[in-house]
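Pilot study result, target chain (152 residues):
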Amino acid sequence: MKNLITNTLVSKAGLEALILRLPIGLILAAHGSQKLFAWFGGYGLDGTGQWMASVGLQPGFLMALLAGGAEFFGGVALMLGVMTRLAAMVTAMTMLVALFWVHWGKGFFLTTHGIEYALALLSATTALIFIGGGKCSLDALIGSKVREIEDE
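Predicted structure:
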């Protein structure tokens, strides 16, 4: 179990992980806050749930809660670099659903609500699954403490 925890937290990445985590995490957290809290011009859980139900994601309220929670809490976790690989995996799955369920068939570009934006976020979060949080993350701090305990 300790090896699983250590392997999940350890990352050989340097500043590149931080450079990727911060803006992607901010974007995801902002979009999640629109869905959950109606911040930044969002519709909140009720409005987002109604829209999700209208595009076939049922039950709409639950789907809004899951998508908003994944984006908001996953985005915050990415910014902090805590449980980075898990947060990246959850947000990547959310972007995969968005890409195929919502944006597919609407072209490529953002101007037509195409796949461009969801694809960019999917690519970035997938990369973070593999590279982890990097040396400037809470994962690195926690991982070093776990290694100290293992060495005792």
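One observation from the pilot: The two ends are 16 Å apart (CA to CA). A full batch analysis is planned for the follow-on phase.
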